[in-house]
Amino acid sequence: MEHFRDPILPSIAPKPAINIKHIRENPDLYKKTCIDRNYQSQKDHPQKILQLFNDWKELQRNALDLRKAKNRVHSRILQGQALRPSNGPDLSRQNESLSEDYRSLVAEAKRVKDECSKVEFQEAPLLDEIEHLATGLPNLTSDETPVGVEPEIVGFINKELKPPIPRAIRDHISIGTDCGLLDFAGAATTSGWGWYYLKNEGALLEQALVQYALHVAMTHGFSVVTPPSMVYSHIAAACGYQPRDQGGEQQSYIIAQQSSGEASNANKEGKPELTLAGTAEIPFAGMKANTMMDRNELPLQIVGPSRCYRAEAGARGLDTKGLYRVHEFTKVEMFAWTLKGNEHVAFKAMLGVQKHILNSLGLRCRILEMPSTDLGASAVRKVDIEAFFPSRQSKNDGWGEVTSTSICTDYQTRRLNTRVKPAPRRVPVPDWAPDGKKSSVEDKTEFPSTVNGTALAVPRVLAAIIENGWSEEHQCIRIPHVLHHWMHGIQHIGKPHR
Questions:
Q1: 80 vs 405: CA distance, rounded Å
Q2: How many Å apart are CA 364 and CA 240, to the nearest integer?
Q3: Pairing between strand 300-309 and 182-183?
Q4: Distance CA 279, CA 240 (A)
Q5: 272: Cβ–Cβ under 8 A, 6 or more apart, which residues?
Q6: How far is CA 92 from CA 82, 127, 241, 438, in A?
Q7: Is pLDDT at 295 greater than 80 in this prediction?
Q8: C-alpha angle 31-404-335 in degrees, rounded to nearest 5
Q9: Residue 306's beta-bridge partner residues?
Q10: CA 269 → CA 234, 263, 266, distances in Å?
Q11: Per mean pLDDT, which range of 13-22, 151-160, 252-261, 264-273 is the poorest?
Q12: CB 319 within 8 A of CB 325
């Protein structure tokens, strides 16, 4: 049996409630899901779970037989105590015979008890291993999701907008640096590659985008929440985010907790590990961990700005130049809890917010139904929206992801112990029932579904606005009209006067 090291968890850590029965009953379905998503190391987990469960059942049968034997021995011991004589001429001889039988029964009881303990000792690791394997499996895949590596184009935003003439193209790095908006050199000295400074109108533009995205989401019924940037690592894992991806690349920044005057790591300290959140989806989902939600408050839709941290900024090259892929950035995230079966309502609402924002910013975009290999562990379905970047026409025809929306069903809530209070249902009351007899019962506790989506990821949208809004003729960047209010009336950004 495979052994694994338990992470150090706080006492309040949620206890996962994975639907292991469904995995046992559908091992081939879960194996196919792993293969379709390229989760090669997990594809054998369903069969291992089935085998371990059969081993556990065999131990259960052995334990039942031993408990029956223990009860029989106990009964004989009690009978022997009841038959012991208290007086008479043969008292000594009878007591000696009974004592010998009694000692034999006591010895047998101890042997059976020890055997029971051995079986129980074997059961716990089996159950732990089953849960460990089940927790590592990805969610199932929606019928809407194309199998393979190619996304399906399902729509466009501002399709009528024409890309600029190639000879006039400048990238956002060149434009932003000339206009005094970006500083990559200073950030490289301060923090390393993959970091940046936003300056002057660039910093204002970041705040304008955040405020505008929040405004649009609020008009669509979302409530604003500002989440923490740091979370327990087990909360991130419960949301489907592991420290390393399937290719072994580091994804998260792990924070070691140290005692005063010491430099030992979190495990030596015996403290739970902390992670800088790569997306507000993680702290949003964790907000309702170990919580029983009322059905009447669903769907619960929230939106909030946060700083996001990604250790993997990718290999250097066109795909990762400038603001396109960075280690730290501001993002406005949407999140929702819904009753099972209502996920698509929240999903469409988030897509509606994204389309509204990108359309009003005047960006030419395409909408993609993402393939199975592009889904994260928690998602059953994912739709991305890509904006057109003039400087990226040599790669992917200029398209680059700016938003993403995912349905996660109960993957996260089962791992975070987020439940929904069961709905009472009416049952007939028989005539003979006493007065005051309840006429309703509650169904089993349910786990709500979660849906998440990007309202606006600042660096990429800012880069798209710089590149698409740049006028070579006037040597300035046109600010989208909807941002003028949030930019204090600034409509154009030109080169600073020297």
A1: 72
A2: 31
A3: unpaired
A4: 12
A5: 7, 8, 9, 10, 13, 232, 233, 234, 257, 266
A6: 16, 52, 74, 64
A7: yes
A8: 95
A9: 331
A10: 17, 10, 5
A11: 264-273
A12: yes
SS3 for the chain is CCCCCCCCCCCCCCCCCCCHHHHHHCHHHHHHHHHHCCCHHHCCHHHHHHHHHHHHHHHHHHHHHHHHHHHHHHHHHHHHHHHCCCCCCCHHHHHHHHHHHHHHHHHHHHHHHHHHHHHHHHHHHHHHHHHHHHHCCCCCCCCCCCCCCCCEEEEEECCCCCCCCHHHCCCHHHHHHHCCCEEHHHHHHHCCCCCCEECCHHHHHHHHHHHHHHHHHHHCCCEECCCCCEEEHHHHHHCCCCCECCCCCECCEEECCCCCCCCCCHHHHCCCCEEECCCCHHHHHHCCCCEEECHHHCCEEEEEEEEEECCCCCCCCHHHCCCCCCCEEEEEEEEEEECCCCHHHHHHHHHHHHHHHHHHCCCCEEEEECCHHHCCCCCCEEEEEEEECHHHCCCHHHEEEEEEEEECCCHHHHHHCEEECCCEEECCCCCCCCCCCCCEEECCCECCEEEEEEEEEHHHHHHHHHHHHEECCCCEEECCHHHCCCCCCCCEEECCCC
Cα within 13 Å of Cα(265), Cβ side: 4
- Summary mean pLDDT of the chain: 86
Work out the percent of the chain whose per-residue pLDDT is above 70: 76
Q: Rounded to whole angstroms, how far apart are CA atoms 272 and 257?
A: 8
For residue 496, the model assigns a pLDDT of 84
**From CA 343, how far away is CA 408, in angstroms rounded?**
9
Model pLDDT, residue 498:
57
Q: Assign 102 a pLDDT band (cuts: 50, 70, 90).
A: low
Please give the pLDDT value at position 444.
75
How far apart CA 366 and CA 385 sit, in angstroms, is 6
pLDDT tens figures, 229-248: 999 999 999 999 976 666 66
Please provide the distance, in angstroms rounded to a whole number, between the alpha carbons at the two ends of the chain. 70
* C-alpha span between 487 and 482 (Å, rounded): 9
Counted residue by residue, the chain has a size of: 498
pLDDT digits (tens, 9 = 90+) for 248-286: 667 889 987 765 554 444 445 578 889 999 999 999 999
Nearest to 311 by CA among 248, 232, 264: 248
- Other beta carbons within 10 angstroms of residue 262's beta carbon come to 9
pLDDT of residue 266: 45
At 423 the pLDDT is: 76
Structure-token pair, residue 254: 């792990």
With a cut of 50, say whether residue 456 has pLDDT above it: yes
Higher pLDDT, 140 or 317: 140
